[in-house]
Design a protein that fits this description.
Elements: H1 9-21, E1 27-28, H2 31-38, H3 42-50, H4 55-66, H5 70-75, H6 77-87, E2 95-97, H7 101-108, H8 114-126, E3 130-133, E4 140-143, H9 150-155, H10 162-218
Antiparallel strand pairs: 1-2, 2-4, 3-4
């Protein structure tokens, strides 16, 4: 079922909170995820997930191939700094989503219309429920599920259905037709006034000519 609008706070939280908590495929944001971010391994990890690997198997394989111990991966100062950056002030489980904005929406909001998915995504981003990693559309996100409030729900734009838009367009067209009729009426009145003015000017000119003729005749 395609969702074109969100009618209640409960529905909004179902989409942005409950659905994520019930999604078993989400990757827990951890020191290992922080290492992946810090080491620039997001693309490689994304490919590993596509191949069916878990965070644990990917990190174990990486540790073996690189010679970097799991302890070094999890406990370096850089890793701790990245972890603190994305979890500071938040109590609860957060998740590492190694995808761009486009892929995020495609994965989690695929049943929404583009306008609505963009609005919900931006609301999550602007309120800190999503933290973007990378510029532009991002290359990954850290998700911190927190329920929205009524104020957040009220801030979502209201999208009209196609029929409502057509009805509005028809109202505008009818209004414009009425306006055109009024304009034509005023134009006609102006034309009539201009004709009267022309006639009066012609009459004034004729009177002036007669006055001049009488004046000249009187002085002869």
């Amino acid at each position: 079922m395609i969702i074109s609008s969100i009618s209640s706070l409960e529905e909004l939280n179902n989409i942005t909170y409950d659905d994520f908590l019930n999604n078993e495929s989400l990757v827990q944001f951890s020191y290992f995820a922080s290492y992946i971010i810090n080491a620039g391994l997001i693309s490689q990890f994304r490919n590993a997930l596509a191949a069916g690997e878990s965070m644990g198997s990917y990190i174990a394989a990486y540790s073996e191939q690189s010679g970097v111990s799991l302890d070094e991966i999890a406990n370096s100062a850089e890793v701790l700094s990245v972890y603190e950056l994305y979890t500071s002030g938040y109590i609860g489980s957060s998740y590492f989503i190694p995808y761009s904005k486009k892929d995020f929406i495609s994965l989690y909001f695929s049943n929404m219309t583009p306008q609505l998915s963009e609005s919900v995504f931006n609301l999550m981003l602007s309120t800190g429920r999503l933290n973007q990693i990378g510029s532009g559309g991002g290359k990954a996100f850290v998700l911190k599920p927190v329920q929205f409030t009524e104020t957040h729900f009220q801030s979502l734009p209201v999208f009209k259905t196609s029929q409502e838009l057509l009805d509005t367009a028809q109202e505008v067209i009818n209004c414009l037709k009425s306006q055109i009729k009024d304009v034509n009426y005023y134009v006609q009145k102006i034309v009539e006034k201009d004709q009267i003015i022309d006639e009066l000017n012609q009459h004034i000119l004729e009177l002036n000519n007669k006055i001049n003729q009488i004046y000249q005749t009187t002085w002869r």
